[in-house]
Amino acid sequence: MQEAVAQAVDNVSFTLKKGETLGLAGESGCGKTTTALSIMKLLPRGGTILNGEIILDGEDLVKKTDREMNAIRWKKIAIVFQGAMNALNPVIRVGDQVAEAIVEKEKVAKSEAWQRARSLFELVGLDSARVVDYPHEFSGGMRQRVMIAMALACNPSIVIADEPVTALDVVVQTRILELLKDLQRKLNLSVILITHDLSVIAETCDRVAIMYAGKIAELGSVTDVYKDSWHPYTDALISAFPSIIGPKRRFDSIPGDPPDLTMPPSGCRFHPRCPWQDETCQMQDPEYRNVGVDHFVACHHSEKLRSRLRGGKV
Amino acid sequence: MTIQETPASQIKEDRFWLYRRKLGDFWRLFRRSSLGKLGLALVLSFVMLALAAPWIAPFDPFTFVGDPFLKPSSTYIFGTDQVGRDIFSRVIYGTRISLLVGLVASAMTVCLGTLVGLVAGYLGGRIDNLLMRITDLFIIIPALPLMLIMAAILGKGVQNIIIVIAVIGWTATARMVRSQTMSLKERPFTEASRAIGSTDLHTISRHIVPNVFPLVFANGMIAIVDAILSEAGLSFLGFGDPSRPSWGMVLYFANTAGATVNGYWWYIVPPGICIMLLVMGFAFVSYSTDQILNPRLRRR
Amino acid sequence: MPPQRETAFKASGREGLTAELLHVENLSVWFAARTGFSGLFSTKQDWVHAVDDVSFSVRKGEVMCLAGESGSGKTTTARAILGLTKARSGSVKFADKDLLTLSKGDMRKLRHKMQIIFQDPYESIDPRMSVSEILSEPLEVNKVARSRRDREDRVYKALEDVRLLPPHEFARRFPHELSGGQRQRVAIARALVLQPELLLADEPVSMLDASIRVQILNLLLDLREEYDLTFIYITHDLAQARYIGNEIVIMYLGKMMEYGPVEDAVSKPVHPYTKALISNVPVPDPTIKHDKIPVKGETPSALDMPSGCRFHPRCPYAEEICRTKEPEFAKVGRDRFSACHFNDRWIS
What is the domain-level CATH number for residue C123? Predict the structure, then answer.
């Protein structure tokens, strides 16, 4: 039983613009959830931020103490955790659970908190009379709405949603995603959407960061990233989601498995699985560089490969 | 492509190393727990005592070697009893019986309980109902009176005590194993076993039993504690075997000799402390084993 | 159903007549609902209709998809076919026998012909057994390949088939030393080692990472070609069903809603539920905007089964008759069926 250090997030940089939806996409273990937890300073025991800055409203969150972060969490940034809809306390009414967040953070009277809970329910499309119900009386989609209501309880300007629709049926998925878009417009929210599902990202996000093994492989507007990919992993990952429309053809899969982050590959972390890797890739970590208007990529051979990736293909 | 090594024999070897590694890991974790080490030390000391009794005990526990009710001295470390036997020697020899009954009775309890639990949990339906109602019967009837009645019917003798303890104690294991079996039955790899065409017996022995084992082991430790205490209690009440006195029997003799009334503390305290220490030893081992087998209990 | 059909997917390379391997007729699976204390005293039994009246046939070499969302009954159907769950009524004809009438022992003798791959690669293989033991177990249990040499050969062959190379290296490993994708390959190898005719795959890739999914899907397609296997593929992901399937059955709350060739069902769906599902599936292309048919509510619990057409409370086109009368599963085209009172409206 040895202890090992996993480099979960390495040199990740991005900006979130006001009112936009930024997607963090990637497979399990790529570091997207860890990045989100780092922003909220909610890393589990054993997780440390080694260096870097997280600037919100001119202040660096990395330097803030836990106490200072408490004033920021939920009030400026809120998060809907993965699977949270199944973690609601089954013996407490949902109204209480939402009101609890408000009372904790803003020290208002319980009655006022309940009033706000009711209006939050309306906001997320739930019948406000149902604040007195228990979690098991709600369906999956409705519980997710409750979680969104909880996140919005203190009027944050940023909401992080971690796999908000993964466990839901596809028709309910559409409605929750539409709700998020709606809320974003109404409240001028900025949203970070974390998911492994590239179809969801394509339909909901403005910009996307494709992450692999703790690093960002490519970042840009969804149109750029999906239609003019510069990184082989982006191309391969999009292909891994068969489409319901378009020509039916067989996809080539990426060989191998995602790496063990306690012993990441040398050089470019994707090189063992990349069909175009060469010696440079094996030895040198590619630079994260700007290749277009707000389009970044970390690959040694992007210029050469670009035409063979999604932009070049039909 | 030629096969260089037969996978079967290689597997046996790999399996051996896997278990050895697991045992090694287990031991390493166990070593970290001071409570566990203390417990193990206690248990092992008593086992040594039991095995080495003929060489450690200064006198024969059955012959009278001095005047009755002598206080502790350098010759008679715990003094003598009502007929002049050396209490120290009796306590040392008593270790054998207490340990023997504790281990054998608990083994029987666990085996019986596991068997019932496995059958009831896996087969379900009417058999489960029947077995559980029988279990409930044994739970409802108060243990001590039942023990006494059975002991009275079966008569004196160490083997009878073992039987009595086993017959009373199996219910807890049975219920626990049953509930674990029921949950294991639903797990995909058990279903997979059925899907490939296994008989129920094969599925139970190959897949369910090995996964129930950690629980049974932990439970077994508790059963040992229960068995030792039950034996002590039964013996104290007079149902023990006078020809093979355990610590409980020594206390029985102490009581009938009026040791409590007359204040012959050297007669009562040593066997009492021994019972306490042995039970504590097993309890500590059980506690740390629990922590290892159930990783969620481990403190970081 | 008409006895002759052509297989559609090019990979099989066969066209024309193909024999029927499995024929499911009016299969129903009900579970007894226990309702707490009242259940003890009441004599009337409440039943959960997990699967009701499902019929379809699967041709040799075909990939039949059972598709539907949570609560649709697709997994229960598959398990009833394999005899892992008890069916209430209906018949399952395979190898000239009705599986539902067989005794436990007779069923066990047939099991080697139909195998299953489960959804969870972390749970479907016993963590205490080595890969070699996991793959030998079916052989031992079915008393196939008596000699050790024979068994080894078959274990190695199965590992090669699922591309876990070198096989003797993987045979020695234990599940915790394998990744999710590798474990699922072991599960597939275990299903293959008995050389079955029919393979049931229950959401085999939904718990795997995206980049591994296509690997496994392609593997299954390759194996199908190599061994002329027949698949029943269960999934909630219609895009996956389209990728791998020839025929599809769309289920909702235990009943069949639509049946037909996958490509037709996906491009020209007939049943309103199918239409809604297809339109709501997100597409991995931000430049394609498509209208999504809104569907209100969520799938109700099977204990509160809607009357008439089970989809009516949520259907955007529901009318009075939908509430009172269950629609028939009627033919709407060549090899296509749909259960809607207004089928004629949807056929283009």
Answer: 3.40.50.300
